[in-house]
Automatic annotation (TrEMBL):
<dbReference type="InterPro" id="IPR045034">
    <property type="entry name" value="O-acyltransferase_WSD1-like"/>
</dbReference>
<dbReference type="GO" id="GO:0008374">
    <property type="term" value="F:O-acyltransferase activity"/>
</dbReference>
<dbReference type="GO" id="GO:0019432">
    <property type="term" value="P:triglyceride biosynthetic process"/>
</dbReference>
<protein>
    <recommendedName>
        <fullName>O-acyltransferase WSD1 C-terminal domain-containing protein</fullName>
    </recommendedName>
</protein>
<dbReference type="InterPro" id="IPR009721">
    <property type="entry name" value="O-acyltransferase_WSD1_C"/>
</dbReference>
<dbReference type="Pfam" id="PF06974">
    <property type="entry name" value="WS_DGAT_C"/>
</dbReference>
<feature type="domain" description="O-acyltransferase WSD1 C-terminal">
    <location>
        <begin position="26"/>
        <end position="107"/>
    </location>
</feature>
<dbReference type="GO" id="GO:0005886">
    <property type="term" value="C:plasma membrane"/>
</dbReference>
Amino acid sequence: MGHNIQSGFLVSEAFQLANQNRQLELSSIVRYTTVSFSNMIGPVEQVEFCGHPVVFIAPSGYGPPEALTLNFQSYVNTMMVNLAVDEAQFPDVHDLLEDFVESLKLIRGAASNLVEKHRND
């Protein structure tokens, strides 16, 4: 009986140690992540919440503090963009925003041209 109790205690300690290591590993993954990406799209049709139509979803970001956080969220033919900037790292936030808007216009134009070219082929 004494060996079973000791074995159970050792197994319990091993699981606890493994769990702590997993938590440290996940914590370091999140802490040192430069880019994370998900291709999950939002609903293409309007949804209801408690019988009320959802007409707007406010995007937000959550996570460890970063110099730049960018979040895209799609909902019913609309793409919302959330840009969070550390002003200590980017002193001229307005220039960054203007560059970002220009880049999005260029990307949208290139994607539209690609679609048109594909339709014509």
